[in-house]
Amino acid sequence: MKAKLPHLCIAVAGALILSGCSGMELKRTDGITPTGSAFGRALFSEYVAYSRTEFNEGDYENSDVFALRARSVAQGTVLEPEEMATRTLPPATVPELTTARGRLVAALRGGARERAPQDAAKAQVMWECWMEEQEENNSANDIATCRTAFLAALAKIEQTPVAAQAETITVYFDTDKATLNDEARREVARAVARIRALNAKSVVLEGHADRTGSAGHNMSLSQNRVAAVRAAIQQAGVNVQFSESAFGETRPAVPTAEGVRERRNRGVAVKIVP
């Protein structure tokens, strides 16, 4: 699981004194007792555990990366999930990873850190594990292990009582289109009215596509549909915080065969959280 990642060591170092990614950062982290929130303490422990895994496998560079992130957390830094730009990823994997990170960030910002700190910390570190393994692209088993652990933790933190109480309005799109037709504009207007009526502070947007194109194209299409709905809501002048996810063809409302046009799978779910 080796990778040449000095740029990552620099990126997470901050004011810490580096050893050049030599595998010594884990030793420097041992013995630190983090303080702060339950999430921060859990995140520190998850980073240390994964740093130790990498060290034991002889991947000292990545061991240093995760040990440094653990120390940043222990010092009180609020670390967002690793940005995709820090890794050189196979192009074919980018759509799925983009959506996965979007879901993770939405869950974390939606209160998962406070509600389920251990699962939220596991999801963040397993996301970064998946990114690392995907960049190296040496072992399908290692990639699958990180991805599976991430998705399991993510499923737990996405199951929120608040989300269950949200009022949902779905905006549907024409085949292979990400522009609002007349019907879609009416549904957006209805969503805006409900946002105002409920005095909502948060809106969750989830984009979908049917199976009439490739998986990659449908992922991009669902992202563009989310962007179109968000822009229309913002243009109406409401002040609301957005959380956004795009699922492409992976979460159909109605399962279909490849190539089947299905209106109910071409929507953006607007979840209005009171």
Question: What's the story with the biggest beta sheet?
Answer: 4 strands, mixed
Strand order of the largest sheet: 1-4-2-3
Nearest-integer average pLDDT: 88
Order of helices and strands: HHHHHHHHEHEHEE
Tell me the fraction of residues in β-strands, as a range.
5-15%
How many separate domains make up the residues?
2
Task: Determine the structural class based on helices, strands and strand pairing.
Answer: alpha+beta
The residue ranges in which pLDDT falls below 50 over 5 or more consecutive positions are 2-20
Q: What integer value in Å does the Rg equal?
A: 21 Å
Shape: globular
* DSSP summary: helix tally: 10
What is the subunit arrangement here? Answer: single chain
Write the layout of secondary structure elements.
Blueprint lengths: L5 H8 L11 H5 L8 H19 L3 H15 L19 H22 L1 H20 L3 H19 L2 H4 L2 E6 L9 H16 L4 E6 L7 H21 L5 E6 L20 E7 L1
Parallel strand pairs: 2-3
Antiparallel strand pairs: 1-4, 2-4
Helix pairs in contact: 1-4, 3-4, 3-6, 5-6, 5-7, 6-7
